[in-house]
Amino acid sequence: MKLYQKFCLLSRGKQIGIVVSSLHLIFVCSLTIHHFATRKLKPPRPMIVRTLAAPAPKVITQKKVQKQPAKKTVAAGSKPKPAAPIKKKKTETKLKPPSIAKKAPPIKEDRIFKEISNSLQAMETEAKRSRSTLTIPSKIEPAKDLPSVESTKDATYSEYLIAYLQTTLDLPEYGEVRAKIEIDRFGRLIDCIILEAKSNKNAEFLKNQLPALTFSCLNDFGIVDSTQTFTITFRNVEIR
């Protein structure tokens, strides 16, 4: 009974394998028993041995025939013509005279000095132009002052906005800009209103850059509302 219970606990494939192998074993055992049983019942047959004498091989004697060497007949008076000597053609290799590199004409020292002075003047003018076209980099204050977010609904999303905007946006000019933005649950900017700006360039910069940013979803911060409104104050203050 225990073996049967263990057999039932095995998987379907293992059960089929055990049944097939046991049937093969029973079949082989029955064949061997049948073979030995029939072998004992049948009387042994007498073996007949016939001996056949092999015929003696015939000896064949071969006669060796001596071949006479062929006589060479040489016609009288005919002498072998000597082979004409082969004339070797002499190949003359003409050596080309080595090419002499032409010497470059000497450059006058005055011309070199003029070129150096012209290049230095061009470099100075380019440096002056680059200095005049450079814009003053915006120096941003720490996250405590820039930007400041006024929101009464969720503080963690406000902190995220402060850190995100501080790392992604740099105002082109010094000054302060106060803006109102609205973000939906998928992190898309729905509305952006500039409430106050001391610099028109900074206001236009925020109008163009804020819609291009992608914010985190509100659901990631546990906010169920469909939209959120934030009032943000951007500051770019010169650090002395």
Overall morphology = elongated
Write down the CATH class of the domain at 148-236.
Alpha Beta
* Strand coverage percent: 5-15%
Helix content range of the residues, please?
25-40%
How are the strands ordered across the major sheet? 1-4-2-3
Low-pLDDT residue spans: 73-78, 127-154
Residue-averaged pLDDT: 72
The CATH architecture category of the domain at 148-236 equals 2-Layer Sandwich
How many β-strand stretches? 4
Q: Write down the Rg.
A: 56 Å
Which structural class matches the secondary elements? alpha+beta
Tell me the distance between the termini.
94 Å
Number of alpha- plus pi-helical segments? 5
Q: Please summarize the sheet with the most strands.
A: 4 strands, antiparallel
Q: Assign the CATH topology of the domain at 148-236.
A: Fusion Protein Consisting Of Minor Coat Protein, Glycine Rich Linker, Tola, And A His Tag, Chain: A, Domain 2
What is the H/E order? HHHEHEEHE
